[in-house]
Amino acid sequence: MLKNIKYIDLFAGIGGFHQAMSSFGAECVFASEWDKDCQETYEANYGIRPYGDITQIEADEIPSHDIICAGFPCQAFSISGKQKGFEDTRGTLFFDVIRIASYHKPKILILENVKNFEKHDGGNTLQVVKESLDKLGYNIFYKILNASYFGVPQKRERIFIVAFRNDLQIKKFSFPSSFGSATSLSEFLLPYSKVKEFIINREDIQLKQKVEIKRDMFGNYPQKPIRVGIVNKGGQGERIYSPLGHAITLSAYGGGVGAKTGLYMIDGVIRRLAPRECMRISGFPEDFILHSNRNVSYRQFGNSVVVNVLKALLEEIQKVYNTPETSSGYFYWFDSS
């Protein structure tokens, strides 16, 4: 458990970090998110109204904290975007994380971004992040993790960066490789009666004559999307997948008839996923309150971090922090002094 731990949730979205941190008992003392719809969803679920534009908030106005959580905007580094990186205004928001960390000197930073962040600009973008954190006195570790191996059926690869303050003397850290049992999308679907509005009826649907789906030695279906057909020319948002595999990466801005969720052949019909199904494959609990606007919900889950991956990551952070060298013999996760 995270005893007496305080954290701040920057670029908070709908609270993926909040879900994971609160499940360990940590306290959110500050949240920032400039999207009004996300602010509304965040407040509805956690009782906290995130502050707006972080660039307009002084570091000394933010409460002291032990951890910074920040899934800073990824559009500037995404393959589907223009990949301008730090030349893009959204990319420079990383330096607001640095500004706040420089003032408060939290023990740990947990950052998340798209997979392409690692190789963006030939690795120079990641190097800027590493050097910035190193100058502040942090030891940095990073790895790309795929949500498919963490108990949810969504292929979502993201880079996670964990930075420990040097005085904690944490020089080795192992990222989780998996967490939770193997899954298939079929286990997360709503009953037919609740998804009729998401069915796609078109004359240009083309299904493969035969798709062989093999189970592994444990009886599990492949932990990846399995394509079974296309609509139109099979471009983005026009590919059809089997529910026995995993969903494709949820997208906030994708186009095509299967925009944002992809298309799936389920119970003999072709359809998109419902917002609540997107919620499930992102690791959010059943009592999570969705935004009233369906398209807003799609965008929110398309931008969200997967909760299961964060929980697995926190388990590993807890292990390394609780070694005798860093805990002085006490089994409390972080001394918040």
Features:
5-stranded mixed beta sheet; 23% helix; alpha/beta; 2 domains; Rossmann fold; 337 residues; 8 helices; 11 strands; DNA Methylase, Chain A, domain 2; 6-stranded mixed beta sheet; disordered C terminus; globular
Low-confidence stretches: 77-81, 324-337
Count of structural domains: 2
Order of helices and strands: EHEHEHEHEEEEEEEHHHH
CATH topology of the largest domain: Rossmann fold
Average of pLDDT: 90
Number of strands: 11
Briefly say what this structure is.
The chain has 337 residues and is α/β, with parallel strands linked by helices.
Structural features, described:
This protein has 337 residues and is an alpha/beta fold. It folds into two domains: 6-181 and 302-327, 3-Layer(aba) Sandwich (Rossmann fold); 185-301, DNA Methylase, subunit A, domain 2 (DNA Methylase, Chain A, domain 2, Alpha-Beta Complex), CATH 3.90.120.10. 23% of the residues lie in helices and 17% in strands. It is built from eight helices and eleven strands. The strands form two sheets. It has a six-stranded mixed sheet with strand order 2-1-3-4-6-5, sandwiched between helices. The protein has a five-stranded mixed sheet with strand order 7-8-9-10-11, with no helix packed on it. Helix 1 links the parallel strand 1 and strand 2 (27-32). Helix 1 packs across helix 7 and helix 3 packs parallel to helix 4.
